[in-house]
Design goal:
Elements (H helix, E strand, L loop, with lengths): L3 E13 L4 H10 L3 E14 L4 E5 L6 H9 L6 E6 L9 H5 L2 E5 L11 H12 L3 H15 L14 H13 L5 E5 L7 H16 L3 E5 L3 H7 L2 E6 L2 E6 L1 H7 L3 E8 L11 E7 L2 E7 L5 H9 L4 E8 L2 H9 L4
Parallel strand pairs: 3-7, 3-8, 5-6, 6-7
Antiparallel strand pairs: 1-2, 1-4, 8-9, 10-12, 10-13, 11-12
Helix pairs in contact: 5-6
Length: 326
């Protein structure tokens, strides 16, 4: 049985129509006129135990709303949800909380004026983790996430990146079967991001199922074997990263370093993305052109120092889906 099963999930919000001016303000007090927004509009998917799944889309696509319904924070307008054997989740939030770990971007589960160590101690008691087991887990997570020096500092004095590392530790202290992550690497520098990614890989390899949303598409490409793309409340792709690239345009990039200023005559389907000094970057559609054809056109009449073919990354694919970068 899947760890997560969602069928025809919907969540509607009513956005009230506010009128301006004094008379309008008086009418707002007595009028409930407005429009219905379909934040999640008929989503269906399942996640098997042990999977590491990315869930991506632009702001307002329905990602966070979906996660909040999976945790039981929001009640769906309709549809069926089963998470860790609890259906619907909002009617079993206390029991479900013992099976899942959650990190919601900039929404903290740590007490603002307390140091993380005291918040962790409270979470240990809430989840019923034995003291000895708790100390071992905290020591391991502290080393992996570099929390030394942060554990006794009030949360309000931590930077965003430091706080996110502490939030991640809080979500893992009770060793959940399912980890739901909404922008977990926000505010982190490159080094810490890579440390967090390594930790998440280890956690997943040890058997924890992970559902991840992130605007840092390097997170998705490096961590997830499967990616779901949501747009306007509907899932428009569910499959591997490579399949996503093939579906939305099999673009590739040729980077050539020349010994002299290049003179380029390219075949149809190839275009110059940029020229910087003696380096030219050329994009081409691999469904219409083979790499040797593009290389032959670039080499013709030019002296080459170096040349390389690069695969299009997922960021470019998602930009293409949503019409960004045009």
């Amino acid at each position: 049985m899947p760890l997560i099963s969602v069928k025809d999930l919907r969540k509607d919000f009513k956005v009230l129509a506010h009128k301006s001016g004094l008379i309008g303000a008086m009418r707002n007090l007595f009028s409930a006129a407005g429009r219905i927004v379909n934040a999640v509009d008929g989503v269906s998917f399942s996640v098997e135990a042990g999977e590491f799944v990315g869930y991506v889309g632009p702001n307002g696509a329905g990602k966070s709303t979906t996660l909040k319904m999976l945790t039981g924070i929001l009640v769906p307008s309709s549809g069926v949800i089963d998470v860790c054997g609890f259906s619907p989740p909002h009617k079993a939030r206390t029991k479900l909380a013992r099976r899942i770990g959650v990190v919601f971007g900039q929404r903290t589960q740590l007490w603002w004026d307390l140091p993380p160590r005291e918040s962790y101690d409270l979470l240990m008691r809430l989840f019923g983790v034995p003291r000895g087991v708790f100390e071992l887990r905290l020591a391991r997570l502290s080393g992996l996430l570099e929390l030394e020096g942060l554990l006794d500092t009030p949360v309000r004095k931590l930077s965003l990146g430091q706080k996110m590392r502490c939030e991640l530790a809080a979500a893992l202290l009770h060793e959940p079967a399912l980890l739901l992550l909404d922008e977990p690497t926000i505010g982190m520098d490159v080094v810490v991001k890579e440390q967090v990614r390594k930790l998440l890989r280890r956690i997943n390899e040890a058997g924890t199922t992970i559902l991840l949303t992130s605007h840092d598409l390097d997170d998705i490409e490096q961590l997830c074997r499967r990616v779901m793309v949501i747009d306007k409340g509907r899932i428009i792709h569910d499959g591997g990263v490579d399949a996503l690239k093939r579906r939305y345009g099999n673009r590739r990039r040729l980077v050539a370093d020349f010994l002299d200023q290049p003179k380029l005559v390219l075949p149809q389907g190839a275009e110059v993305a940029s020229i910087e000094g003696l380096r030219a970057t050329i994009d081409f559609d691999a469904d219409k052109l083979r790499a040797p054809e593009v290389i032959a056109a670039v080499v013709a009449g030019n002296r080459i120092h170096d040349i390389a073919i690069q695969e299009c990354d997922i960021a470019e694919v998602v930009k293409r889906i949503y019409g960004e970068g045009k």
